[in-house]
Amino acid sequence: MSKSFKLKLSNPKLWLLIGVGLAGAVVLAETRRRRRRKLSKEDFGALVERFQLLPIPQPDQTQTQTQTQALSALTFAIKDIFDVKGYVTGFGNPHWKRTHSEAGKTAIVITALLSSGATCVGKTVMDEFSFGISGENKFYGTPTNPYLPSSIPGGSSSGSAVAVAAGLVDFAIGTDTTGCVRIPAAFCGILGFRPSHGIVSTIGVLPNAQSLDTVGWFARDSSVLHHVGLVLLPKNLVELKRTRRIIFADDLFQLSKVPSQKTVYIIHRAIENLSGYQSPQHMNICQYIASNVPSLKGFRDKLTHQQNAVSILKDLTSVMFSLQGYEFKTNHEKWFKSVKPRLGRTVSKRINSAMNSTHDRMKTLYKVRTEMRVAFQRLLKDDGILVIPTVPDDPLKLNGFSSEFHDRAFALSSIASISGCCQVAIPLGCHNDCCASVSFISAHGADKFLLNTVLDMYTTIQEQVSVTYTLPLPDANGGIESSDLLKEKGNAAFKGRLWNKAVNYYSEAINLNGTNATYFSNRAAAYLELGCFQEAEEDCNKAILHDKKNVKAYLRRGTARELLLRYEEALKDFQHALVLEPQNKTASLAEKRLRKSRS
């Protein structure tokens, strides 16, 4: 070190100047941090960038006046995946934003909305690269779920959903690839629409996976949802007056924590005074998929010994992820290899999996997609509405992670993603202090039909949500008979494979004696045969409450939980059964199977 430099460092005035400068920098940084925190609280952390795009003035042409004023005075926000001229599209990751230039043009859908009288107020936070369904972002923070601040808002269009739910805007635009609009709509208690694949323009939208990507939108009001659809959907999609067929996917409601009876009751009551609705039908949609999508068999999990709703949806999810991974790699591999960006924990695994994907089975993947499209066109035609739960579970707590939660959520969202059908998520009040949601699915191209159905039913659905009701108990034909005799009748029906009759007999026995663990455990066995896994689990809970050493109840609850993709809980049940009965072969095989599947 030179002498002159030592003298400068020993000068007290120099140290004073350095100290003042550092203090100023600290104060400035703290001021900026507090401003950001204040902004985050004001907008629930939904917006990543604020700006204002005013409505585009239109020529005064009589034939277009109605359309151009369709969204007059409405405000909206857009996911940070849409190009806006003069702004860099961030894709939810600062490394992407740093290495890309400002967009030269605005996305077609944004221009259409501005041309229809709406005002854009900014871009919203999203999961990095549109991967993930939690809504969490390592770099930009997690938007706050207005209805449940301690839980995730859902993603990947998290900021758009929160902006609408919090009342910051009238509607918001997002994208839906694997559930990215439907899932946050469900968790935030608002309407969310995923259009038919390829119906709404994606020009000016960064691609995740083109075979699955769609531009979707959120709203609190069905009329706003409808008006946005009229602007974005092609004008040649003519909606004809027709009757409507409501079809409940009974097997899928077994995956939901919201009782299926509640949803069925509300929909029944909502349409009973509306014209043009046929009596609701019920079906097992997974059996239909298994019978009509033969190419799906090639994706069967080798560890799955039983074909059921969950295994079929797992196969469908596998196809969805394989398609997404291969196409994402094709779109962005070069950038990832050159930049090597830092990634958030939840996104890193998905990106790495995508980068390691191959094209080995691409023809089969596209064949499954085609078969699903054809199968659902044949099922729904131009008047069908399939009713399913939007999500199976309540939202996770912030910073929590559960692979089972993701598996179950993707299982339901894979149906519309692979078939290309249009789907709308509709709020259904609350269950266990969380937002409940039901979804309507219509055939590819029936978007206006579906939006009109929501507009027609929404008010009555919300009226019925608040109605209290009591479900009728099963008819008791032998009230004078002992509960044990009813149990024996149930056992006989079970051996004869008359599962519904067995459930009825066991239910009558329970009505006479509601403290007998065996009755609940036996009814759980019948429910398992019927594919009613949620009911089976609840019965096992009651059986164990009355008899903590009921080995069969632990085995049956473990089976139900495994079929509901809750593997950790299932493993604990089988382990507990082994503690009570160390030589139990069923429990031992199940434990080995679950351990192997987790490795």
Automatic annotation (TrEMBL):
InterPro entries, A to Z: Amidase_dom (IPR023631), AS_sf (IPR036928), TPR-like_helical_dom_sf (IPR011990), TPR_rpt (IPR019734)
SUPFAM superfamilies membership: Amidase signature (AS) enzymes (SSF75304), TPR-like (SSF48452)
Mapped TPR repeat ranges: 551-584
Keywords attached to this entry: TPR repeat
Domain of life: Eukaryota
Residue ranges of every copy of the Amidase domain listed in the record: 61-221
Entry annotated with the keyword Signal: no
Keyword Cell inner membrane among UniProt keywords: no
Pfam families (alphabetical): Amidase (PF01425)
SMART domains listed in its UniProt record: TPR
Protein name, entry field: Amidase domain-containing protein
Species of provenance: Phaseolus vulgaris
